[in-house]
Amino acid sequence: MWHNLYNKLAIGLTLILLLVGLLYVGVVLSINKNNSLSTDQALNRELAKHLVAERNLVAENRINQAALKKAFMYYMNINPSIEIYLLDLQGKILSYSAEPGKVKLNRISLAPLHEFFAAKNFPILGDDPRNYGKQKVFSVTPVPNKQNPEGYLYVILRGEQFDAIEVVAKNKRLLTLSIWLIGVSLGIGLLVGLLGVYFITRRLKLLSQSADVFSQSGFSQAVPLSFSAKNGDEIDRLAETFNHMSAKIVQQLKSLKKQDEARCEMVANISHDLRTPLAALHGYIETLILKQASLTAEQQQHYLKSALNNSVRLSQLIDELFELARLESAETKAKMEPFSIAELASDVIQQYAPIASEQNNRLSMECFEAPPFVSADIGMIQRVLENLISNGLRHTENGAVVLSLSKAHEKNQCAYQRYRLGNG
């Protein structure tokens, strides 16, 4: 499964959407909780002041301790979601509406209380006396009054019992909301994402299949891919490059095959050419050894001269083989320079004129139009002309060898050389 690109992308997309869904749920719950705290504290901002007024907690500008105890007992039974504390001016807890042993702090910070008196934006969190390091929304008022404060009536709006009930409700709501929210968002996002991934990987799959077919065919059969040439993306450009690459490989393989066939044919021809002078040389030497006593000096000289000629021919053929090897190994690099092909051909004709005369052959050159200057390696072109004329003379007896020059391509100013053979 992991070897499939589509499966990898699909699983990765699913995990990403799942994480996004969880993060979204967390952010929503956090925002809801903050809004709830702010609303609760804003609505109950005057709760502490109302408690003082309604329960007659202040009498003759002093705190009525008896009324305070009754208020504690009353709200513990009627509204257990709030917790009431009496503080002195330094924040020390003097009394509270809680069971003994529940309160863990002796003193709370007064900074949130002073901020509460001047606040316009909520929530403001104060210390929770029942939990170390935990803060909650609250309401507070100075007692007995603001002009003559002896302490503060500090009311926690969401007490311990409220937290316990809220946790159960929140867990249930969180579970339900998370399931629906993640399910819907994941389903829609996953569907859209998988469709997008499919259309992306589909083209990559076609490219992979084409590469497999190309490889299985021995790189001799390319499978062209369609692509958008103008507004294509990286995959389209990759498909275009693959098409050019596969076409180039096929062309090079065909060229190499033709070169290999030509090389095999050339080696076969040279092997045949080597066999003839080698057999003749062997025959002349064997004759000299076996019939040396019965041969005249003139006959011996004739056999030796013939053996020498065949030896020279063998040397020429071997030189041609070495030249072929050098050309194929790219050891010989062309030195390009402009020159007159007609003048070079004329020089080669004059070079082989004595040999042609000895064989009773006519050697000549003809030009149908003024030959242009060419840019090439003059040494290599000279060897080509020498091979052409030498082969022509070798296969002609009492005839004519004509080297013809003509312009073959106007743009590149190329010159083709050919020879005609004829007897008589």
What does this structure look like?
The protein has helices spanning 5-43, 47-54, 65-78, 111-117, 160-216, 234-290, 297-328, 341-358, 378-394; strands spanning 58-59, 62-63, 83-88, 93-96, 125-127, 135-144, 149-156, 337-340, 362-367, 373-376, 399-409, 414-423. The protein is of the alpha+beta class and 424 residues long. The protein has a 5-stranded antiparallel sheet, with helices on both faces. A 3-stranded mixed sheet has the order 9-11-12, with helices on one face. A two-stranded antiparallel sheet has the order 1-2. Helix 5 runs parallel beside helix 6 and helix 8 packs parallel to helix 9 (378-394). The longest helix is centred in the middle third of the chain and has 57 residues, at 160-216. It is rod-shaped and about 165 Å long. Mean pLDDT is 77; it is low at 411-424.
What's this, in brief?
Helix content is 59%, strand content 17%. The chain has 424 residues and is of the alpha+beta class. The relative contact order is 0.06.
Topology, please?
Layout: H1 5-43, H2 47-54, E1 58-59, E2 62-63, H3 65-78, E3 83-88, E4 93-96, H4 111-117, E5 125-127, E6 135-144, E7 149-156, H5 160-216, H6 234-290, H7 297-328, E8 337-340, H8 341-358, E9 362-367, E10 373-376, H9 378-394, E11 399-409, E12 414-423
User: Rg from C-alpha positions?
Assistant: 54 Å
Unreliable runs? 411-424
SSE class: alpha+beta
Tally of contiguous helical segments: 9
Strand content: 15-25%
State the helicity in percent bands: 55-70%
Strand neighbour order, sheet with most strands: 4-3-7-6-5
Shape: rod-shaped
The SSE string, one letter per element, is HHEEHEEHEEEHHHEHEEHEE
Head-to-tail CA distance between termini:
81 Å
Biggest beta-sheet profile: 5 strands, antiparallel
Q: How many E-type strands?
A: 12
Whole-number mean pLDDT: 77
